[in-house]
Amino acid sequence: MRKETKEMLKRASIIDDHVHLSVHAKSRAKIEELDRSMVENSIDAVIALAAYFPRKTGSITNEQILSLTKNYDNIVVFGSLDAENNLQKGVLELGKLLTEDRIVGIKLYPGYQFVYPNDKKLDEVYELAAKFGVPVMFHSGLAYKSPGGIRFSRPIYFDDVADKFPELKMIISHLGDPDIRQATAVAHKNPNVYLDFSGLVSNTTKNQERSEKWKRKNEEYITETIANVMIDLMGTEKIIFGTDWPISSHKAYLSLVDSLEERLDLDSKEKEQILAGNILKVLGVKK
Ligand SMILES: [Zn+2]
Q: d(Cα 60, Cα 66) in Å, to the nearest integer?
């Protein structure tokens, strides 16, 4: 990681590990909007994720996301690849980007690309990440639009990867929803596995056209679910703050953290772990 990136991250009190950007004119995921939301909500740094969705729209390549974010020092990038159709090409490209210090992690999308995380063919991606000491983040669980193969991103498959690559830091995004207890078990068992709770609260894809009553009920349910994950893990060491912006808003997620703080009597150290400490650990940045 570049020295100035490391220094920026060390100073950050709130880091969102999970945001999306788009190159499409009609998309809400615009860099200026992201920047505005970060300023408004005091989000100090974010991780923007490249995405290759050969089966649906919404892709953003490594070069596209790097070009969009190049003038924003507080936005760092996780690279990605099309593991389903162009694995070799992707591995070469990610290797080059890691050598050049342009990305700080890798994001994989089992469920949108129909590849199981424990498929042997992905080993070279994990070896590459381990060699450079960068984390691999996985989309897990629900795929909101077809074609999406939920079975490919069940948390249980991450366990094999965690076992095989104990030195590799892994993030299971979205708590493995709907298999949340399974994801919790994988994080509990494996010292190298962390969970982010992005995309669950006020998820606009899920909430579309719902009444306020059901949105509120859903939010209460999700808040309780996330609190229960921490109770299940008996601590905050494995939990990472992430939003899935613009699918969920920074505002909704900051108020979620306030609710969790109240509900679980989080002390300042525990809150700090969730908001920044744990992701810094995963990124290998020492405060
Ligand atoms: Zn996401």
A: 10
